[in-house]
């Protein structure tokens, strides 16, 4: 960025899961795409969580923090939302599809065909507008005539979408400097994911994403040790530690209460609100993945699965800690007080599990799981009672209804023994805080 050049970004706190972000800049590629499609935009992204978007670029399908994505003042930015809000089930299907494609390689040839109007049988690879259109098509929502071959401009013109106003903000030089000096866990996550997938593709070149990788480990136990080693050496199993190092206050009510600046206090309140309200797009995925690897370990031993089982044990605990801290810290804001009552404070502490592989039988690996809020156990019983894990969103809905009482059973939880009558709309209100997405949340 040239000195003195003004930059802007999308207001991440106004984005909702499922929103589509379309952009165009002054670069050569953008101009070629716009010229070929006779359109105003050249790139498409989909929001999957607070400030978190997923898109397909030359480095493949990856998650990004929208607050780190900066644009020139003359860049074209369009934010679209469905005219009619989809059910939670359908929206969950859209988001699950986008997340399942993380790691999938980019298809430059098919992106060119979409602009040129050439249609051939599709491959398993992605490009930006295909990813967005197919995510919605997976839930039975047809944004465009052909989700396999479409352009960002076709998405922009979809009659099912409306454009949102006032979705960008200027970024000060001081804030730019602050973000530049801040560690970027998203980049570390992308590097680790790519390292694992590259190791898998050396064994099987058809592997595109982590769903493919999971099936490969199941079908080829002779490759298990090599994939397990790739996970360890990539740093993927340790990414969660970065949030404890960078944002220790996420898990510590005392540190939250030490924040006294009025401006920062507002950010703290927004952080607490978004943390509590983003369960369906955050914590539930950790519990679902935990259940998945518990079942994998129940049926067969794989070193890779044991490592991932241990990882998701940790992420479930971290998520419970973070939400508990947010609920405790939010209470004084709701009551018009700044300091939380000690009687409503949960005993907080960091639970750290050893991520190294354990040479155990499948049964003993399964016995190691001790989910703190009971949600993983609920999902596991649901899975077995239905002869397999139910359709993704049905599982999401059932587990979502079980989550509030399960959280209230957490020892020392401030909501234990009382009912939280706040609505989702009330929890979702308030301005979001500019912060990095935590490791693994995409």
Computed CA radius of gyration, to the nearest angstrom: 22 Å
Order of helices and strands: EEHEEEEEHHHHEEHHHHHHHHHHHHH
Low-confidence stretches: 333-373, 388-442
For the largest sheet, list the strands in their spatial order.
5-4-3-2-7-8
Alpha plus pi helix count: 18
SS elements, strand count:
9
Main sheet characteristics: 6 strands, antiparallel
Q: Give the domain tally.
A: 2
**How much strand content do the residues show?**
5-15%
Overall structural class, as computed from helix and strand content, comes to alpha+beta
Summarize the structure.
By secondary structure, the protein is of the alpha+beta class.
What does this protein look like?
- Mean pLDDT is 76; it is low at 333-373 and 388-442.
- The radius of gyration is 22 Å and the shape is globular.
- Helix 2 (88-100) runs antiparallel to helix 4 (128-137), helix 7 runs antiparallel to helix 9 and helix 16 (375-385) crosses helix 17 (392-408).
- 43% of the residues are buried.
- 48% of the residues lie in helices and 10% in strands.
- The chain has helices at 28-37, 88-100, 108-116, 128-137, 152-156, 173-181, 185-203, 210-219, 224-234, 241-246, 253-257, 262-277, 283-299, 303-335, 362-367, 375-385, 392-408, 424-428; strands at 7-10, 20-24, 43-49, 52-57, 60-65, 71-72, 76-82, 161-163, 168-171.
- A hairpin with a 2-residue loop joins strand 3 and strand 4 (52-57).
- The chain contains 18 helices and nine strands.
- It has two domains: 7-169, endopeptidase domain like (from Nostoc punctiforme) (endopeptidase fold (from Nostoc punctiforme), Alpha-Beta Complex), CATH 3.90.1720.10; 240-428, no CATH class.
- A six-stranded antiparallel sheet has the order 5-4-3-2-7-8.
- The protein is α+β, with helices and mostly antiparallel strands.
């Amino acid at each position: 960025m040239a000195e003195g050049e003004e930059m802007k970004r999308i207001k991440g706190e106004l984005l909702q899961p499922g929103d589509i972000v379309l952009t165009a800049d002054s670069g050569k590629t953008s101009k070629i795409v716009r010229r070929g499609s006779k359109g105003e935009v050249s790139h498409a992204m989909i929001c999957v969580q607070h400030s978190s978007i997923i898109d397909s670029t030359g480095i493949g399908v990856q998650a990004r923090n929208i607050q780190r994505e900066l644009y020139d003042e003359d860049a074209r930015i369009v934010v679209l939302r469905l005219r009619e809000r989809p059910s939670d089930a359908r929206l969950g299907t859209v988001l699950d599809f986008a997340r399942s494609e993380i790691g999938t390689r980019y298809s430059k040839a098919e992106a060119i065909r979409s602009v040129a109007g050439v249609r051939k049988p599709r491959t398993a690879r992605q490009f930006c507008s295909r990813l967005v259109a197919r995510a919605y098509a997976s839930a039975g929502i047809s944004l465009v005539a052909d989700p396999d071959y479409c352009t960002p401009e076709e998405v922009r013109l979809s009659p099912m979408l409306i454009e949102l106003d006032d979705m960008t903000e200027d970024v000060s030089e001081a804030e730019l400097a602050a973000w530049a000096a801040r560690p970027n866990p998203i980049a570390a996550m992308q590097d680790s994911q790519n390292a694992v997938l590259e190791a898998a593709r050396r064994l099987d070149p058809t592997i595109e994403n982590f769903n493919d990788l999971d099936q490969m480990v199941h079908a080829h136990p002779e490759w298990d040790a090599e994939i397990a080693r790739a996970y360890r050496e990539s740093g993927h199993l340790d990414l969660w530690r970065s949030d404890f190092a960078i944002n220790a206050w996420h898990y510590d009510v005392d540190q939250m209460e030490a924040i006294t600046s009025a401006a920062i206090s507002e950010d703290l309140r927004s952080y607490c609100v978004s943390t509590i309200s983003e369960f369906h797009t955050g914590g539930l995925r950790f519990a679902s993945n935990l259940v998945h690897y518990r079942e994998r370990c129940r049926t067969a031993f794989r070193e890779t699965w044991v490592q991932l089982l241990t990882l998701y044990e940790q992420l479930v605990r971290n998520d419970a800690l973070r939400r508990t801290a947010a609920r405790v810290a939010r209470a004084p804001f709701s009551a018009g007080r700044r300091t939380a009552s000690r009687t409503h404070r949960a005993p907080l502490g960091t639970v750290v599990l050893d991520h190294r592989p354990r040479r155990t039988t499948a049964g003993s690996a399964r016995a190691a799981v001790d989910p703190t809020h009971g949600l993983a156990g609920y999902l596991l019983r649901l899975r077995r009672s239905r002869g397999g894990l139910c359709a993704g969103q049905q599982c999401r809905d059932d587990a979502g209804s079980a989550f509030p009482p399960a959280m209230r059973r957490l020892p020392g939880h401030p909501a234990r023994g009382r009912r939280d009558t706040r609505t989702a709309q009330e929890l979702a209100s308030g301005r979001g805080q500019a912060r990095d997405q935590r490791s693994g949340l995409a």
